[in-house]
């Protein structure tokens, strides 16, 4: 089962002398681009087409292969795979130029997800939901909540020069739906959600110093 319905999915470069920036695709633009998409993979490709125009020196699409330039040199390729079991795809989603991180949208058979590529090391980290970068660009937050095949966890990841690694995790006691996250300053995550059996949206804040977090090691794997 997909981690999020298509409606939600609908809802640069330091390797050259000129630094190019592209704004994230807005929810309204995603809805516009993907209203007639055949599915998540097609939606991702439509968004990628727009991002490639905005970031011409960051990546290129060559058939089934997305080639992303690394810094200061080299490239990393992401190849779509079409098998009897289904299709696995990679699409360019966003670029955080201050930290040299590319965000990719992925589909794996009937699942959707995201991944980060750190251009300075080539490290790829798979993420279950769209990441949100903190204002100081030191962390990213991910809310992985859905009815099936999710960890139902809020996680925070450290963004460092040598890699991105999971730093904190927290799971609520009750099931949540319609979960959205945003940063409040550099060290507080604001989560809006609807508890199971309750149609009223609620909000909770989690500071990085909150003792309820489960803490993880800082080691990264390239």
Roughly what percent helix?
Answer: 10-25%
Strands side by side in the biggest sheet: 4-5-6-7-8
* Integer-rounded radius of gyration: 17 Å
pLDDT averaged residue by residue = 88
Largest sheet geometry: 5 strands, antiparallel
Shape: globular
Strand percent estimate: 35-45%
Number of domains: 2
Spans where pLDDT lies below 50 across 5 or more residues: 1-20
Q: How far is the N terminus from the C terminus? A: 29 Å
Q: What order do the helices and strands follow?
A: HHHEEEEEEEEEEEEEEEE
Structural class from helices and strands? Answer: mainly beta
- By DSSP, the count of extended strands is 16
Number of helices: 3
Report on this model:
With 222 residues, the protein is mostly beta strands. The protein folds into two domains: 1-127, no CATH class; 132-222, no CATH class. Helices cover 13% and strands 44% of the residues. It has helices spanning 6-10, 27-34, 40-54; strands at 59-62, 65-69, 75-79, 81-83, 86-96, 101-108, 111-118, 123-127, 132-133, 139-144, 153-160, 163-170, 176-183, 188-195, 202-207, 214-215. β10 (139-144) and β11 (153-160) form a beta hairpin. The longest helix has 15 residues, at 40-54. It is globular and about 45 Å long. Mean pLDDT is 88; it is low at 1-20.
List keywords for this structure.
5-stranded antiparallel β-sheet; 222 residues; mainly beta; 16 strands; 44% strand; 3 helices
Summarize the topology.
Blueprint: H1 6-10, H2 27-34, H3 40-54, E1 59-62, E2 65-69, E3 75-79, E4 81-83, E5 86-96, E6 101-108, E7 111-118, E8 123-127, E9 132-133, E10 139-144, E11 153-160, E12 163-170, E13 176-183, E14 188-195, E15 202-207, E16 214-215
Antiparallel strand pairs: 1-2, 2-3, 4-5, 5-6, 6-7, 7-8, 9-10, 10-11, 11-12, 12-16, 13-14, 14-15
């Amino acid at each position: 089962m997909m981690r999020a319905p298509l409606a939600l999915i609908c809802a640069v470069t330091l390797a050259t002398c000129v630094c190019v920036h592209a704004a994230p695709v807005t929810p309204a633009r995603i809805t516009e681009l993907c209203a007639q998409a055949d599915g998540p993979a097609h939606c991702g490709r439509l968004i990628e087409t727009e991002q490639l125009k905005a970031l011409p020196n960051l990546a290129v699409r060559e058939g089934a292969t997305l080639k992303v330039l690394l810094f200061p040199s080299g490239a990393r390729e992401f190849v779509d795979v079409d098998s009897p079991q289904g299709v696995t795809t990679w699409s360019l989603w966003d670029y955080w130029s201050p930290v040299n991180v590319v965000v990719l949208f992925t589909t794996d058979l009937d699942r959707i997800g995201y991944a980060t590529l750190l251009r300075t090391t080539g490290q790829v980290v798979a993420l279950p939901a769209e990441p949100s970068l903190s204002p100081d660009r030191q962390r990213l937050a991910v809310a992985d909540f859905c009815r099936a095949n999710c960890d139902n966890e809020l996680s925070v990841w450290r963004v460092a020069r040598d890699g991105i690694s999971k730093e904190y995790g927290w799971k609520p006691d009750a099931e949540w739906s319609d979960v959205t996250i945003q940063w409040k300053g550099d060290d507080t995550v604001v989560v809006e959600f609807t508890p199971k059996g309750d149609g009223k949206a609620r909000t909770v804040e989690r500071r990085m110093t909150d003792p309820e977090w489960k803490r993880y090691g800082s080691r990264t794997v390239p």
